[in-house]
Amino acid sequence: MAQLPKYDYLGANATRMTESGTIAILPACDADKRCKMWLGPLNQIGNIGCGINILGFMGEIDWDNAQKGIAEARFGGTPFQYIVNWFNLKSTNIGLTKQYHEKKYPIDSMKGLDDFFQDVKSKLPNNSCVLVKLNRNDDPTKRPIGLTPGHYILLHKDSEGVLHTYEPIYSTPGDCKARQFKGVSANFFNSYQQQGYITASILEVRLGDDDDDDDIVDDGGGRHWGDMDIADDVVHRGGGNDDDDPPFEFIDTNLVELFTTQLHTCEKPRRGGKRKTNKRKTNKRKTNKRKTNKRKTNKRKTNKRN
Length: 306
Fold this sequence. Notes:
Blueprint: E1 18-20, E2 23-27, H1 31-36, H2 50-58, H3 63-73, H4 80-93, E3 98-106, H5 110-123, E4 128-135, E5 150-157, E6 163-166, E7 178-180, H6 186-195, E8 199-207
């Protein structure tokens, strides 16, 4: 197999992101190759931080800020505005005349969900990726019990023009958790409905001089990972990593085709599938019906008198 490229992790002063139309994309994404080298979720935490893991998978966040993002996600996930703020900070720091915004698609109907996927697919060049957040209702009483306001996935249009979804937070060496998009079927739509997804958010780019400070806001109760201190007791994946090490490690594994059978959610710990239960076999008691011989009675013959 050809030598795989080495991916660097970019902090607040660099980005590889560009745009296709108004959609912010990662060109030359190579998600299939990245996935084969992915060691698993940051800090081996597989139930929070799906958005931060995707930024790391894309190579668009550094170690320190990734740790802050994971810590912030403990308070109820990563608001999409934090993603917007992160890329606007990059844009400002490197002097780009572009601003990032959130674009939302309604996906609470079968047509709306299909329109979302078809629109994004039509605008993505081959071998490019887009970060997506699937949003639930902000009101906890109006979404499935125990789930946070959303879940992040990565959409990759491969070199053949086929769309795939990736969930790095669930990926392990040799198991990419990638799924080919084959259209919005009734089952596909129902799975989204069961998860409580009502809208989908992506990054939108607006070019030109835009000095509006409202583009960088502090959502979620005044917290932002850029303002947080890294906890001293952070556990690094693999043990013994220094803070200067990259936030996500990659390995080179054999190229195989792996697909997930269902869409998971990073707000609940993933369990190992349905538990198999052996049903107790019960032998039905056979009852022999008592045979009763009907008593044969010979009818008395009478000769009629002539």
